[in-house]
Design brief:
- The protein has 9 helices and no strands.
- With about 130 residues, it is mainly alpha-helical.
- Helix 1 packs across helix 2 (about 15-20), helix 2 crosses helix 3 (about 25-40) and helix 5 (about 80-85) packs across helix 6.
- The chain is elongated, with a radius of gyration of 30 Å.
């Protein structure tokens, strides 16, 4: 399809007329004309929009070990681990910490509130007294 656009442009010599006939924006046609000039006809296929490198991949094996040790020894959640690391000058979001924990298949910390369990006697005093 893009090849047809460029052939039509070569025939008419007008970007505006070609864009109107093809039903595309002039800026789109200019983009394809420039790409053909720079890279040839072989590069008229779709380009990947994925970034060539991820800038936020700053997790080293040492940091992973620290995160896993904190989780194991202190049973902290992702947010608390992220806050602790921030105090140690390691800036990671809670989501990044969570991804590391998920990668290593660490189960979620489930803390039961003792206050709620023992407060049932407050609501039913006759059940405990007799």
């Amino acid at each position: 399809m893009r090849q047809k656009w460029l052939e039509l442009y070569a025939g008419t010599g007008s970007v505006t007329k070609t864009a109107l006939r093809c039903g595309i924006a002039r800026s789109t046609l200019y983009r394809w004309i420039n790409r053909e000039k720079e890279q040839g006809k072989s590069e008229l296929s779709d380009k990947s929009k994925r970034p060539s490198r991820l800038a936020n991949m700053k997790i080293t094996p040492e940091i992973e070990t620290i995160i896993l040790n904190l989780r194991e020894t202190r049973s902290w959640g992702a947010q608390r681990i992220a806050n602790y690391l921030l105090r140690k000058r390691i800036k990671l979001s809670a989501m990044t910490v969570w991804r590391v924990l998920k990668k290593h298949q660490v189960k979620a910390v489930v803390k039961r509130c003792e206050k709620f369990i023992s407060s049932s006697s407050r609501f039913f005093p006759s059940a405990t007294s007799g």
